[in-house]
Design goal:
Largest sheet: 5 strands, mixed
Order of helices and strands: HEEEEHEHEHEEEEHHEEH
Distance between the termini: 25 Å
Number of strands: 12
Low-confidence stretches: 1-26, 233-244
Strand order of the largest sheet: 6-5-4-9-10
Mean pLDDT: 80
Strand content: 15-25%
Length: about 270
């Protein structure tokens, strides 16, 4: 009986360890979210307008630096604002600078948004960021629905217009792109840890930015695509070791149970 009780505790422990794995929260709508397309190329030939009204191509923002891409819309007073605020709050504590080490590209998913509205948003967020000299590293784009759809499909960003609410329903998060325009990382939610942003930018730049100490951090942390976060590699090792220990104990208990049953069946001499 004691052995069976021990086996039950071991099974509970294994179940708890499996359940402890983080998962992205389920989408109640079923029509919004991120479908990860890591390493996929975004359409650099897609055409947009920048905040001054100038016709640009997505390729104009690639070639030398990694890019933080945020899909939002500019007259959204709720989730979009929280996402962009979260980007700025995280970047404030990162010593990489837009326009020098990376670029931030916000693209409106609303084809009715105008360059004038994009310009107002850029001015407001630059003031909030507090580094006006980084003006050249922030880009707020608008465009036709065909270009928006191509970009959203490429990064796996699912959204739709809710006629009843008269607003767009969409996921919360950002995408990190390489200087060549390939998808490197996804980060979910409305808050972005400075460490995640820093390591993500380093990964997206193929470690062309960052110090030797930063590169050492990349050896200690790993990116989990399921959660869109970096975690200590040693934690994964410890979890693996703990799981192996529990499985080993489980095997020992099963073996002991089997021996106990055999001893009961053996005739008494």
């Amino acid at each position: 009986m004691r052995l069976r009780a021990a086996l039950g505790l071991i099974l509970v422990a294994i179940t708890s360890m499996c359940d402890a794995e983080p998962h992205a929260p389920p989408d109640p709508l079923g029509r919004v979210g991120f479908d990860q397309h890591l390493a996929q190329q975004v359409p650099l030939d897609a055409s947009f307008h920048d905040e001054s009204g100038k016709r640009v191509r997505l390729a104009d923002y690639f070639g030398t630096r990694p890019v933080i891409l945020a899909l939002a819309y500019y007259d959204c007073a709720n989730l979009c604002t929280l996402v962009l605020n979260g980007v700025i709050e995280g970047l404030r504590r990162v010593d990489f600078r837009p326009g020098i080490d990376f670029d931030v590209v916000a693209v409106s998913i609303n084809p009715n948004d105008t360059p004038a509205l994009a310009s107002d948003k850029k001015a407001a967020y630059l003031a909030y960021y507090g580094h006006p000299a980084s003006d050249q590293g922030w880009h707020f784009l608008t465009g036709e629905e065909s270009s928006i759809t191509r970009l959203a499909d490429a990064v796996g960003f699912r959204y739709f217009y809710d006629e009843k609410q008269k607003q767009y329903a969409h996921a919360a998060g950002i995408t990190m792109l390489t200087p060549q325009g390939k998808i490197a990382r996804y980060f979910y939610g409305i808050q972005f840890a400075p460490q995640d942003l820093r390591l993500g930018l380093m990964d997206a730049s193929a470690e062309r930015i960052g110090s030797a100490a930063d590169r050492l951090m990349l050896l200690c942390f790993h990116y989990d695509p399921r959660t869109g976060q970096y975690g200590l590699l040693i934690q994964s090792w410890m979890q693996t070791l703990a799981l192996a220990t529990v499985i080993g104990l489980g095997g020992f208990v099963l073996l002991a149970l089997r021996r106990e049953r055999r001893s009961r069946k053996s005739p008494v001499r």
